[in-house]
């Protein structure tokens, strides 16, 4: 049999899944093939196990959705190149390219953060394909008009809500996903740079303007995604939108108090929510007693202004703890001293709460040599089954903070789950990749439910 010569990327089809065209990354370094899949549901058909799932076959286009069904042939634990470990369903289907068709196995995975909706691995190529890595689309490409004919991707009339995404960087994964989800659900959603918005305070005609004089008063809702460095201005802007009757998915007061680590811990402890024993003092004279207060070394020292794991230090001995605390205080920095939960073994949980429900959860594990389960520092994430107590704690914490959307971080200790932090602008990339859930759409649906919007 003559072998097919392909480039580093090729358009392929899968008739059994009703996908006439999808661009695949050809990667002989990967053993298995995978395809982008969301909202995976398992069910039985006769005596066999099947899965139904959604595919967005065109990269950076979530308006095109194909619903697929296929029998399950296996389940495998796969670790992706980004460090996520997950148990994936494996299906078998017919793949077509350049007039040839053969059976391949595909794992179902969320590939939103990847460059391609499909990866073609070497198992699917054995005995059939030769790869010329310097070439591309040797089987031909499709025009925009052809793809529209396949999938009906022409722009549709929108009757939805007017939503503003208030943030700083339109290229971040989370912001792109929220915009995609809003458009997919039929809304008019637009990114507004917080620093480029300004306010007219007036009793009769209050207005919010965006750079160039565009008036934003007609928005139905805003989604604040405020970076810590501009918390004051971002919350002032959000508060102004609320004052003129625009719904904010997270309110300014809730964001403000969640950003104050000390105040938020005080509120949580007052509500009876378990937290690691923490200490706070102003005078360096009290350092020794502060260390004893949290059970001695090892302990954690946290700057109150730190973000994403920055300004967090593990002091393994009493001497080191005294040195770190006094050094920070000499710089007039506000800090917390917190007990170190050794039994957590560098792992914590991130629970994503939307309007009083835990919609997704993952376990984060610290990189070798690190004590923080932080994705920005080489940590990994995987799907986790949470306990009813952990679910209840996350919901209660979000409620105490007044947040409709929250990333709640929990650590498992010998005395039960303890709350570490409540994040008012949780990132979507880690949780969507680890769980395969469409969190961005659930955020948009939360706005729809609150404003009682239904499509025409």
| Distance between the ends | 55 Å
Oligomer: single chain
Strand order of the largest sheet: 2-3-10-4-9-8-7-6-5
Cα-based radius of gyration, to the nearest Å: 25 Å
- Regions with little confidence, pLDDT below 50 for 5+ residues: none
Word description of this protein:
This protein is α+β, with helices and mostly antiparallel strands and 456 residues long. The protein folds into four domains: 4-151, Acid Proteases (Cathepsin D, subunit A, domain 1), CATH 2.40.70; 162-258, Rossmann fold (3-Layer(aba) Sandwich); 277-340, Dna Ligase, domain 1 (2-Layer Sandwich), CATH 3.30.1490; 345-450, ATP-grasp fold, B domain (D-amino Acid Aminotransferase, Chain A, domain 1), CATH 3.30.470.20. 23% of the residues lie in helices and 36% in strands. The protein is built from ten helices and 27 strands. The strands form six sheets. Strands 2-3-10-4-9-8-7-6-5 form a nine-stranded mixed beta sheet, with helices on one face. A five-stranded antiparallel beta sheet has the order 25-24-23-26-27, sandwiched between helices. The protein has a four-stranded parallel beta sheet with strand order 13-12-17-18, with helices on both faces. The model has no long low-confidence stretch (mean pLDDT 88).
């Amino acid at each position: 049999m003559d072998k097919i010569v392909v480039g580093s990327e090729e358009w392929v089809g899968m008739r059994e899944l009703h996908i006439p065209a999808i661009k695949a990354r050809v990667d002989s370094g990967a053993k298995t093939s995978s395809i982008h899949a969301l909202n995976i549901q398992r069910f039985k058909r006769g005596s066999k196990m099947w899965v139904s799932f959604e595919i967005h076959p065109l990269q950076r286009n979530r308006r095109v959705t194909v619903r697929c069904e296929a029998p399950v042939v296996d389940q495998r634990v796969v670790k992706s190149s980004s460090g996520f470990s997950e148990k994936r369903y494996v299906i078998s289907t017919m793949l077509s390219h350049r007039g040839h068709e053969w059976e391949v196995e595909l794992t179902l995975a969320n590939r939103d953060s990847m460059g391609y909706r499909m990866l073609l691995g070497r198992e699917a190529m054995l005995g059939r394909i030769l790869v010329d890595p310097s070439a591309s689309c040797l089987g031909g490409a499709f025009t925009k008009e052809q793809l529209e004919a396949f999938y009906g991707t022409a722009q549709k009339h929108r009757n939805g809500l007017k939503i503003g995404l208030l943030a700083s960087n339109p290229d971040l994964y989370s912001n792109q996903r929220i915009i995609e989800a809003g458009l997919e659900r039929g809304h008019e959603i637009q990114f507004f740079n917080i620093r480029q918005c300004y306010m007219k305070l007036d009793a009769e005609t209050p207005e919010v303007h965006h750079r160039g004089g565009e008036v934003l008063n007609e928005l139905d809702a805003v989604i604040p995604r405020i970076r810590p460095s501009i918390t004051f201005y971002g919350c002032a802007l959000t508060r102004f939108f609320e004052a003129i009757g625009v719904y904010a998915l997270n309110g300014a007061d809730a964001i403000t108090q969640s950003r104050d680590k000390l105040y938020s811990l005080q509120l949580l402890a007052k509500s009876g929510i378990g937290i690691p024993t923490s200490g706070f003092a102003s005078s360096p004279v009290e350092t020794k007693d502060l260390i004893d207060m949290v059970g001695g070394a090892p302990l954690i020292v946290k700057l109150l202004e730190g973000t994403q794991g920055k300004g967090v230090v593990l002091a393994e001995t009493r001497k080191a703890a005294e040195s770190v605390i006094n050094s920070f205080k000499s710089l007039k920095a506000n800090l917390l001293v917190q007990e170190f939960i050794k039994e957590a073994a560098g792992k914590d949980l991130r629970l994503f709460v939307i309007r009083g429900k835990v919609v997704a959860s993952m376990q984060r594990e610290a990189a070798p040599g690190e004590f923080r389960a932080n994705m920005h520092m080489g940590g990994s994430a995987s799907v986790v089954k949470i306990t009813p107590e952990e679910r209840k704690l996350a919901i209660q914490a979000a409620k105490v903070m007044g947040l409709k959307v929250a990333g709640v971080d929990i650590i498992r200790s010998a005395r039960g789950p303890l709350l570490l932090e409540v994040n008012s602008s949780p990132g979507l990339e880690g949780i969507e990749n680890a769980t395969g859930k469409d969190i961005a759409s659930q955020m948009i649906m939360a706005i729809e439910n609150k404003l009682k919007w239904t499509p025409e």
